[in-house]
Structure prediction request, 253 residues.
Amino acid sequence: MDGPDLEHFFSPSNWHVARRGPRYAQLSRYMAAAIREGRLAGNVQLPPERDLARLADVSRVTVRKAIAELVAQELVDQRQGSGSYVRNPPARALVADPGVLTSFSDYMRALGYRPRTVILSSGISLPRPDEVFALGLSSSQKVARLERLRFADDKPVVIEQNCLPAEFLPDPSQSGESIHEWLSANGHAPARAMRRIGAAALSAREAERLGVAEGTAVLRAEFTSFLESGRAVEFTRGLYLSDVFEFFMELRT
Prediction:
């Protein structure tokens, strides 16, 4: 992006709204959205401070504060003697609404990604205590269990552990790309789900699978899906890369 493109991109008409907060905050939010959406590409140097100030029609102090916000969000790196660079790879955020029940595959397609799943392990066994509780089973009822690595395009973004009553998935290896779609195709479409979201740090094994450093902070989500009848049909635990995944929820009074 250069010349007229930069002039247009940083034009105040694209990002500044009167009485909507400080200019540095508005400029920072605008640039952050552009980085996450890929409009400001990764590993690209931003214009010098004085040029940004001219393009955005703001003071250099405003630019400095906006860039500091982006650095704090780990979207921009400041390199001594070199300038400011969009981080590489840029984080194109995958924003998930916990209040909407949809499959990972459908959600990725809706965002323009190509979903892919690698089954790390699968089998039939007796449930663990947390699975007994989540699925409303007895300890003697068998379950189908899978561990899967989920991809957005070619980037691994989620490690999932799925557990279902074996009657719904007699052969876990036949679940295909999406368990949700497999259940729906076989007359067991989930109607609602309960989800719990927290934080976790990756073990060495988990980090290797996701291609990041051991101890990387991730989002941890557990959810139980239910049929229309109220019966629990799936219990899933997932570790989501927090630099590319966000969860969005709307709160009302």
